[in-house]
Amino acid sequence: MIRLSAFSDEAGDSLSQQLQALHRNGLSMMELRSVDRKNISTFTEAEARAMRAELDREGITLSALGSPLGKVDLDERFAPVEDQLRHLCELALIYGTDRIRMFSFKKAYGDRSRVLEYLSRMVEIANEYGVKLCHENEKGIYGDTAERVADLMESVQGLRFVYDPANFLQTGETADQTLDRFCDRCDYFHVKDVVLKTGQLVPAGHGDGQISTLLERLKDRDTILTVEPHLKVFGSYQDIDGEKMEHKFFFETNDQAFDAAVNALKELLGRAGYREVDGGYQAN
Fold first, then answer.
1. Is 275 exposed, middle or buried (0-12, 13-18, 19+ CB in 10 A)?
2. Whether the Cβ atoms of residue 123 and residue 156 lie closer than 8 Å to each other
3. Are 2 and 225 within 8 A, CB to CB?
4. Beta bridge partners of residue 141, listed in sequence order
5. Burial environment of residue 236 by CB neighbours within 10 A (0 to 12, 13 to 18, 19 or more)
6. How many degrees, rounded to 5, is the angle at CA 29 between CA 15 and CA 282?
7. Residue 192: closest CA among 180, 200, 201, 179
8. Across all residues in the chain, what is the average pLDDT?
9. Residue range 133-142, pLDDT digits in tens
10. What tens digit of pLDDT does each residue of 10-60 get?
């Protein structure tokens, strides 16, 4: 069965806006990245407990913490990374999730040995808390291309992986090169699509990410699809990434863009023969 989650901060900054977007789209799960433009990694434990209580009241659970862990320049000092990781693990336990989305460092292409050393140590620390580190392929980090993702899979024992088709496309990798290679080896999936030729971000099924093929491949799997629209610039993106986004479709509001992304994925699920049941999507 497939369960749907989403980066709801793309619909709105405040928690109330995010909850409204989730309820409006029939989603009961989120990948928490930011609230009020405050990144998850900076929340205090008290803030996390208060937010967990609100989420419980609203019937929302977390699929993962959408953390920025490892989305920094590779540095000789491991201590700041460890401090952030331990804090995120404590937050994960408060929120009731055992997954933390993370990255494999910027400006790191020429220092494979240190990347592997850091990631291995990070997995060991996360294991102390019973938390899984889930690496997302993203342009500009060590694990952005198919070859380097495969290297991490073979070299870092215990590291888990998120498959993001659009991010691979943005590094010049095609879905033909990555889908068969990684689909069965990833814990869960981000749903974001892009037109390879132009680099324009589009709703699922309108680009070259072969989302329909991915859904066919997942028919015998129990997994999570996290909608990460990127169809309109949103607050936390400006604060953290700030790179220019290219879009093919125009949406007046972030709510409209978020709804369009969720609806596009649900349409693809229907076309692929899935039916909604017990809060998830089951293949016929």
1. exposed
2. yes
3. yes
4. 106
5. buried
6. 155
7. 201
8. 94
9. 999 999 999 9
10. 999 999 999 999 999 999 999 999 999 999 999 999 999 999 999 999 999
Residue 230 or residue 129, greater confidence = 129
In this structure, the strands spanning 193-194 and 188-191 are unpaired
pLDDT the model gives residue 238: 52
Q: What are phi and psi of 250, to 5 degrees?
A: -105, 135
Q: How far apart are CA 165 and CA 163, in angstroms?
A: 6
**Which residue in this structure is represented by tokens 């008290």?**
46
Q: Label each residue of the chain as H, E or C.
A: CEEEEECHHHCCCCHHHHHHHHHHCCCCEEEECEECCEEHHHCCHHHHHHHHHHHHHHCCEEEEEECCCCCCECCCCCHHHHHHHHHHHHHHHHHCCCEEEECCCECCCCCHHHHHHHHHHHHHHHHHHCCEEEEECCCCEHHHCHHHHHHHHHHCCCCEEEECHHHHHHCCCCHHHHHHHHHHHCCEEEECEECCCCCCEECCCCCCCCHHHHHHHCCCCCEEEEECCCCCCCHHHHHHCCCCCCECCCCCCHHHHHHHHHHHHHHHHHHCCEEEECCEEEEC
- In which region does residue 171 sit, left (phi positive, over 0), alpha (psi from -120 to 50) or beta (all else)? alpha
Whole-number Å distance between alpha carbons of 189 and 225: 5
Q: Please provide the size of the chain in residues.
A: 284
C-alpha distance from residue 76 to each of 55, 73, 86, 117 (Å): 38, 10, 19, 11
Q: Are the C-beta atoms of 56 and 26 separated by less than 8 Å?
A: no
